[in-house]
Amino acid sequence: MRFCISEKDLDEVLQSQIVYSNVAKGVLAKSKDLKAAFGMDDQTKICLEILEKGELQVAGKERESQLSNQFRDIATIVMQKTINPETQRPYTISMIERLMHEIHFAVDPHSNSKKQALDVIRELQKHFPIKRSPMRLRLTLPQDKFDSLAEKLSEWKAVILSKDESGSQFSVVCEIDPGIFRDCDALVRNLQGRSEILAISVHGEGDFHADDVSSSQETSTSTEVVQQLTEKMQKPTFVSEPTSDLKHCTTCDAVVGDAKQYREHFKSDWHKHNLKRKTRQLPPLSAEECAADEELTDSKKDLSEYSF
């Protein structure tokens, strides 16, 4: 596997810019060995050369671990972007993973997790009661233009939460399907107004529970499948007692598991996000908070993902 470098900051690519002769044992490469192999001992330049010309060697177990972590990342994105239309609440991450297995989803390690998550949502909507969670917006425009906007909001089945009049300006807070955002934003701009994203994904309070499914009408195959999955989740599971071998990550301020899980944690987006916060002297976030923080940042940079 060849590397293609688009990131200019090495700190965003590597955990360390130190070259090892045996990383497992922590043995640093000697200067004479570096000169013999690369013709120089400048470790930063050597790291760049390795990234540009080297090949990534991944063991079977490590590849399996990477796919498992990416599967979890995709499921997390799906959970954040969707709700159960009957309860207006998000499904649990365990339920989302079970549904992904039901549609025989396979991770593509060469594709972006967010893109795959959107593909998963489209496929899940064909089989299960699931829909995109709405966006919450504040739309501000001249008062004499509001009638034109109100007509479109009604057509889009937007939920209007509040209205506010201030001088010649009229402001409305509403919730719309994310797929409509680009059209809505374009319309507001044409009406000489502006749109502001208040929330990327709006969920009802609380998470999905088994009762939410069992109380629904059993008239569709998709609902029955969800009920079956829920019953499986209710079966007792045996969890071993925690031991003193559990590792604590000081960067994330969390217990992350045994030695193997501890090593895998350092490769996770959660840990990398908190590393960035640590350099800015900000407190660590939980895994869910990190995912939400990254989602908000990404959405401000590129809103094209909402047009499906």
Description of the molecule:
About 10% of the residues have low confidence. This protein has four domains: 44 residues, 2-Layer Sandwich (Hypothetical 12.0 Kda Protein In Nam8-gar1 Intergenic Region, Chain: A); 102 residues, Orthogonal Bundle (Arc Repressor Mutant, subunit A); 66 residues, Alpha-Beta Plaits (2-Layer Sandwich), CATH 3.30.70; 60 residues, no CATH class. With 308 residues, the protein is an alpha+beta fold. Helix 3 packs across helix 4. The two termini are 32 Å apart. The protein has twelve helices and ten strands. 44% of the residues lie in helices and 15% in strands. The strands form four sheets. A four-stranded antiparallel sheet has the order 6-7-5-8, with helices on one face. The longest helix is centred in the N-terminal third of the chain and has 22 residues.
